[in-house]
Amino acid sequence: MTNYKLNNLNLSKLKEQVSIPEYNRSNIKTGIVHVGIGGFHRAHQAYYTDELLHDESVKDWGICGVALLDFDTKIYNVLKEQDGLYTLIVKELDGTLTKRVIGSIVEYLFAPENPQAVIEKMASPDVKIISLTITEGGYNYNESTKQFDFNNPLIQYDLENPSSPKTIFGYLTQALKLRKERKLKGLSVQSCDNIQGNGHMTQKMLLSYVAKAEPELVDWINSNVSFPNAMVDRITPATSASDISNLKETSGIDDAWPVVCEPFKQWVIEDNFVAGRPSWEKVGAQFVEDVEPFEKMKLQLLNAGHSVLGIIGALMGYDTIDEVANNEDVNRFLRAYMRQEVAPILNDLTGVDLESYEASLLERFGNIYIKDQIDRICSESSAKFPIFILPTVNAQLKQNGTIKHAALVIAAWAIYSLGVNEAGKTLLIKDAMQSTLQEKALAAKNNPKAFLEIEAIFGVLKDSEPFVKAYTAAYHNIVKNGIEKCVLDTNRN
Ligand code: CS2
């Protein structure tokens, strides 16, 4: 089969092999600046937007993708070479692949190379939404103080170098300041990250920064910028080398960075856009008044479920989520965690059948074609546990509920943080707090409680007697008998 490099010029040649954008991309104006163009954004918001752009009347909602970090050079270069095009490969439940070239990213910028261009783009009168996928840790929230973390050296840098920022807070501040000075309209800053109340969090963190960096801008933001909350969902594993070669061999598409994902997708958005928004509801998104219950359900069940499987699976020596999800004992453990520890705190959820949601999650986790990497799931656990697992623990402790499954998972995380699994294999730990985690994990060998002393993660959990008791028992049990036996014991009790 002839291979074609994916770009504008070759697009029509690929039409036989794959569905391509059937709209004139050069007529599409940028209405959204999106920061963080990793796999998730490209499988989710950019996909929904591409679907919508197939409606001929929609011309104002193209996306400008911004790569914020030095680390993002590669994705920026790929998008630049491919005119913003990439292939989305949906791995269906029966193993077949549905491939489609996505065209909604019509512009792309690399912030470290040209910060001014990013600020200008965000301040463009055509832009109505700045959306973000900057990961849980990107919000610069300190769990123990419950405040914006001004000690972060990058934040210090932005305060001193406002015109060439490095963080999202520096960028947003400069762009909004320009909009105010130019008497332009406000816009919406829309978070697409897995955080409870992600819009509120964005607003709170941004205003903390602005109050210090540009105090006169605070009132303008309060009157002109909205921060819609949203629940986002689509499992998007990291693209593997075989995904790339397979695409070339079966479809003749030479795409340096396709995105692979599951068929399921969900986007529940609070309808709070001050400058207008795309009609994403026409392509499957849900607009609701109160997103909070949906967010809570997804974070505490799906994302938490991932972390449970990831940490236990890593210790057991598995590589992918489906492998550990299909281990019967771990599967039973996860089901019990969901039923006994999470379901009781989701009592404000109306109109959702929780049990069937849980069942659908187990099916998604067990999908053998997705091959979601345990390394991906366990990465940045220090930012994930406080959002995915600890709210459940704290709520359960408040009502004297059970916490034994979570205690085991946290004990397993302490042991995981030593960096080797039970078979002696080195674990690839990628975490902004890696050195603290490792230091406390070492101290935990003599005194398990030492791990809970990381206040930025656990807050005051170390002061809870019932939790410390369950956690310490689980820690000793894992060390003595192994994770598998410990999971079995918890299932039995
Ligand atoms: C995962 C998420 O990173 C994680 O820990 O749980 O990336 C998850 O795959 C997505 O939120 C699914 O919507």
From TrEMBL:
Enzyme Commission (EC) number: 1.1.1.-
Q: Where is the Mannitol dehydrogenase N-terminal domain?
A: 31-282
Cite the Mannitol dehydrogenase C-terminal domain residue spans from the record: 290-478
Q: Name one GO molecular function term.
A: oxidoreductase activity
Instruction: Cite the entry's keywords alphabetically.
Output: NAD, Oxidoreductase
| PROSITE patterns, per the entry | MANNITOL_DHGENASE (PS00974)
The answer to whether keyword Flavoprotein applies is no
Q: What is the protein name stated in its UniProt record?
A: Mannitol dehydrogenase family protein
Provenance organism: Mariniflexile aquimaris
Q: What is the lineage of its organism?
A: Bacteria, Pseudomonadati, Bacteroidota, Flavobacteriia, Flavobacteriales
